[in-house]
Amino acid sequence: MKTPDADVKPLVHPDEFVDLDEIIHLCTGGEAPWLKIQEKVFAEFAQLKSAGYDGRSKIYARGEQCRQKMGKLWKVPAHRIAFMPSAAEGMNWLARGLDWREGDNVVTTNLEFPSVAYAWKHLRSQGVDIRLIPHSNWMVNEIDLLNATDDRTRVLAVSHVSFYTGQCLNLEQLSEGIRDYHTLLAVDATHSSGVVEVAAELTDLTVSSSYKWMLATHGVAPCYFSERAETETKVTCFGWHNLSVWPEQGAERLANAPEKPMPGKLEPGNPAMLVVMHLDQALEILLSVGTAKISDHARSLSKQVSDGLKDLGFIVISPQNYDSRSGNTCFQLSNAKEMQNQLAARGILCWGEYGRVRISTHLYNGSNDVRRFLEVLSELK
Question: What is the pTM of this model?
Answer without folding.
Answer: 0.96
